[in-house]
């Protein structure tokens, strides 16, 4: 998960250091400032988080009790979307804003379908780089590096991407729970256009995004969320526009538990204010 610039959670982008998981990267981890990747890790029951992350997560969860369930639902959506894409023949994935390793990592899901599949993870948190590289030390077909979403060309031309991603073949581009931390000032539509313009037909774009229209019945919760993230809530029409050049596969852009569910949809589905969708490039 990658936040917008100036959030109280952390500096949003990697701007110094080697970005290769070396001690230099580790030295830039500021445990005094909460970060979305580590807050998300805590909400998922992970252990790679600090007091600052836990305090913010607890405050938001107290005000919005659905948050932990929403985090798990979003993670489950990621797994279903990745598996679907892999089953459609996509064998290489670029996961931007990947977050800390957790159960059902993208490479684990993809490689359960295609053992020879390639996955490149990108995140802005040095802790993600450190732990990701440790986890993937023995994974020849998987890489992780620090990246700045505001510079999509640098992501596309990074050596790890060049080593594992062939843009002449379909690619799965994942931007799960990322763009609502990316304000309009950074031109998210332009960033997505840059990332997708050279993707081969048949490529898949996977997005989940907090929906302002889904939160309209909870104005207090919306205010808490916006205060905590300083990101950009968007409605269904605005999120759908990110899929320009892609055909949304059934069931379209829906609340994340409703996207091709493998379990019973929660009875309180109205509380799940996160959209999820998968598009196939024409």
Question: Which regions contain 5 or more consecutive residues with pLDDT less than 50?
Answer: 1-23
CATH superfamily: Vaccinia Virus protein VP39
Find the count of extended strands (DSSP E, 2+ residues): 8
Roughly how many Å is the radius of gyration? Answer: 17 Å
Mean pLDDT: 84
Number of domains: 1
User: Distance N terminus to C terminus?
Assistant: 27 Å
Structural class label:
alpha/beta
Any overview of this molecule?
The protein has helices at 23-27, 36-43, 51-63, 67-87, 106-113, 126-135, 152-156, 159-164, 188-196, 219-229, 236-240, and strands spanning 92-96, 118-123, 142-146, 172-176, 204-210, 246-248, 254-255, 274-281. The chain has 282 residues and is of the alpha/beta class. It has one domain: Rossmann fold, CATH 3.40.50.150. Strands 1, 2, 3, 4, 5, 6, 7 and 8 form an eight-stranded mixed β-sheet that branches. Helix 2 (36-43) packs across helix 3 (51-63) and helix 4 (67-87) runs parallel beside helix 5.
């Amino acid at each position: 998960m990658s936040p917008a610039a100036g959030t109280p959670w952390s500096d949003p982008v990697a701007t110094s250091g080697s970005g290769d998981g070396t001690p230099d990267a580790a030295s830039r981890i500021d445990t005094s400032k909460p970060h979305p990747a580590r807050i998300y890790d805590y909400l998922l029951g992970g252990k790679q988080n600090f007091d600052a992350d836990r305090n913010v997560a607890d405050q938001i969860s107290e005000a919005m009790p659905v948050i932990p369930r929403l985090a798990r639902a979003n993670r489950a959506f990621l797994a279903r979307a990745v598996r679907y894409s892999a089953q459609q023949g996509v064998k290489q994935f670029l996961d931007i804003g990947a977050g800390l390793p957790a159960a059902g990592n993208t490479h684990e899901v993809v490689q359960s379908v295609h053992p020879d599949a390639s996955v490149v993870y990108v995140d802005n948190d040095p802790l993600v780089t450190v732990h990701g590289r440790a986890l993937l030390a023995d994974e020849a077909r998987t890489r992780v590096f620090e990246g700045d979403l505001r510079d999509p060309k640098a992501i596309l031309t990074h050596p790890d991407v060049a080593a594992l991603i062939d843009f002449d073949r379909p690619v799965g581009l994942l931007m799960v729970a990322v763009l609502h931390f990316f304000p309009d000032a950074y031109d998210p539509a332009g960033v997505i256009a840059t990332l997708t313009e050279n993707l081969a037909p048949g490529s898949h774009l996977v997005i989940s995004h907090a929906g302002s229209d889904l939160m309209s019945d909870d104005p207090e919760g919306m205010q808490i969320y916006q205060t905590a993230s300083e990101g950009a809530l968007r409605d269904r029409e605005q999120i759908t526009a990110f899929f320009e050049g892609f055909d949304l596969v059934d069931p379209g852009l829906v609340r994340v538990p409703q996207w091709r569910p493998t379990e019973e949809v929660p009875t309180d589905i109205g509380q799940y204010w996160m959209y999820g969708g998968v598009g196939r490039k024409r």
